[in-house]
């Protein structure tokens, strides 16, 4: 039998959702750091970063 039929998909979905949020936060931080380093237009990402870490 296939092992995928014996796995609880609720657990897999929970880890997928968690990893998706972590990846989005890391990418947003990296983009903000790059824009700050290059002194480009950085008005938009900074408030989103602060909200991300507060909530």
Structural class: mainly alpha
Sheet of most strands? none
Our count of domains comes out at 1
User: Could you give the distance between the termini?
Assistant: 43 Å
Which helices and strands, and how do they pair?
Layout: H1 9-37, H2 45-54
Helix pairs in contact: 1-2
How would you sum up this structure, described in words?
- The chain has 55 residues and is mainly alpha-helical.
- It has one domain.
- The protein has helices at 9-37, 45-54.
- The longest helix has 29 residues, at 9-37.
- The relative contact order is 0.10.
Task: Give descriptors for this structure.
55 residues; transmembrane helix; membrane; 71% helix; mainly alpha; transmembrane; 2 helices
Short description:
Keywords: Membrane, Transmembrane, Transmembrane helix. This protein has 55 residues and is an all-alpha fold.
